Amino acid sequence: MTAIEKSYYCGASTTQIIYETIGGFFDRVAEKHPDSQALILRHQGVEWTYAELQRRVDQLAAGLLALGIVPGDRVGIWGPNSAEWVLTQLATAKLGAIMVCINPAYRLYELEYALNKVECKALITDESFKTSDYLGMLNTLAPELEYCEPGALASTKLPKLKHVIRMGSSSSAGMHNFDQVCELATDADRAALVGLQTQLKPDDAINIQFTSGTTGNPKGATLSHCNILNNGYLTGEAMRLTPADKLCIPVPLYHCFGMVLAVLACVSHGATMVFPGEAFDPQQTLQTVQDERCTALHGVPTMFITELDHPNFSSFDLSSLRTGIMAGAPCPIEVMKRVISEMHMRDILIAYGQTELSPINNITLPDDSLERRTETVGRAMPWVEIKVIDDAGHVVPVGEKGEICTRGYSVMQGYWNDPEKTAETIDAAGWLHSGDIATMDACGYVRIVGRIKDMIIRGGENVYPREVEEFLYQHPAISEVQVFGIPDKKMGEEVCAWVQLNEGATLSADDIKAFCKDQITHFKIPRHIRFVSEYPMTVTGKIQKFVMRDEMLASLNQNT
Ligand code: AMP
């Protein structure tokens, strides 16, 4: 290709965009590969073919229809990775209901906010996971469950929520059971589900993912069939997936990494999804790759680092591996090289994107040079335009830094019920402004060099300082708080808070951590807390977080 001079590049392709619904596309794949293995969940003893998966998806979709869930209704899903989670994703898509991904680590404050923000009519929930007692938290928020009929919840705190559908074999007051919902449908419901298929449209919203942005409370990025089906499909194409492939999925389903780059990438290619457990565990992941002879493995950089550093790493046979995706945070070059040589993943790809982009924007390809495959995030995916702009909005010459922006099929529809925030992110010409700083070279390869926003990425999980600050401001003893990230060898970054107390108030770091516990997700709770009487400021009164970051790092290094 001729070298480009300005940092603008459009991903080309010889194939068409798939202009279909997820349900329609899934049915065709399942009918083409009925006997291929679709889903393996080792921790649940599940092994289903595509025919079996399709049968169960239809059963659940018709069961939800029988409950009165109709296209456009919001259905939340809350829990770690499970077969029920995958079924819910595909069944809600088949039914045209909008699946709302609730982070399995959310606590009361976050759950209430999320369910109300997008007005969920139903919530499908696991029983518990690690320290999260999902059913207990729901009963705390909606004590009305204790005496209501299943499906007739009338809760003061969760006014729009009618149905709570619990997984597991036990039953709970006021809730449906997942398995029973699958048995509910009549012939009329099944016929209605078939009839619905001609009414659903590829541009209908089908998924809401919460992303915190820089501005406090989480925003519901709203994605359509066309957004995520194409992004998943094209990711599978970049990985050269076929029905012979088995992808090991230790990444969470509630994030696009799991539900799009893993589930939809596999489902659109008739490949096998293999889940090693409910959540990431390095030993379980390595064991699963070995036992199932997986050909592909996904992960955020921290996951690959933990796998490579596992004390028994060399005892696992990983020779079946070929490809996979590393994404979600900057991918260190040395880690990429080790994954290629020590994990046999000669075709590992780096992907870059964000939830608002369904989520992948850029990807490296197996035939790119080793240098490009380890040092860049690749070029634009097919069908998307990318540009790097300066503060005035002009495209910068190649090699110069600026904000990376994207336009194309993958741009979200907007933030749910938040036209103001949507307009701050997607401009009038349709460009989504990422907040990430990047450079583009003369062949269109992009390097991510920083973030305009102050987001902290801790172990692949995004923590937005403003959200934590806003929560801490609720403490009566706290007058001012600043949250920022510092580099951390293991987690990539760690959350720090500088706290100023009200006159005469006393509080310890442990008190603050206790205040956060069970209210906000564990990874958002500041690890390092310092009490201060003032903050470093510029002459114009802007707080300088980078000064705090440097000072904090220096004092922590002194103490170790
Ligand atoms: P999320 O919306 O959770 O997918 O987070 C998106 C953010 O993660 C992006 O805006 C980037 O700041 C960061 N990110 C994702 N992938 C990469 C990557 N490959 N390299 C560097 N940063 C990344």
List the helices and strands and how they pair.
Layout: E1 8-10, H1 22-32, E2 37-41, E3 46-49, H2 50-67, E4 74-78, H3 83-95, E5 98-102, H4 108-117, E6 122-125, H5 134-141, E7 163-166, E8 176-177, H6 178-183, H7 187-196, E9 205-211, E10 219-224, H8 225-238, E11 246-248, H9 256-267, E12 272-275, H10 282-292, E13 296-297, H11 301-308, E14 323-326, H12 333-342, E15 347-353, E16 360-363, H13 370-375, E17 379-380, E18 384-389, E19 402-408, E20 414-415, H14 419-425, E21 432-440, E22 446-451, E23 456-458, E24 461-463, H15 465-472, E25 478-488, E26 492-501, H16 509-516, E27 528-531, H17 545-558
Parallel strand pairs: 2-12, 4-5, 4-6, 5-9, 6-7, 7-8, 11-12, 11-13, 14-15, 26-27
Antiparallel strand pairs: 1-18, 2-3, 9-10, 10-20, 15-16, 16-17, 18-19, 19-21, 21-22, 23-24, 25-26
Helix pairs in contact: 1-2, 1-3, 2-3, 2-7, 8-9, 10-11, 11-12
The chain binds adenosine monophosphate.
Family: Belongs to the ATP-dependent AMP-binding enzyme family.
Organism: Candidatus Paraluminiphilus aquimaris
Domain AMP-dependent synthetase/ligase: 26-416
Low-confidence stretches: none
Bound molecules: adenosine monophosphate
At the fourth CATH level, what is the homologous superfamily of the domain at 22-38 and 46-219? ANL, N-terminal domain
- How many beta-strand elements? 27
Provide the CATH topology of the domain at 22-38 and 46-219: Rossmann fold
Could you tell me the strand content as a percent range?
15-25%
- pLDDT average, as an integer? 94
Shape: globular
CATH top level label of the domain at 22-38 and 46-219? Alpha Beta
Main beta-sheet annotation: 8 strands, mixed
CATH architecture call of the domain at 22-38 and 46-219: 3-Layer(aba) Sandwich
State the share of residues found in helices, binned by percent.
Answer: 25-40%
Class by SSE composition: alpha/beta
Task: State Rg.
Answer: 23 Å
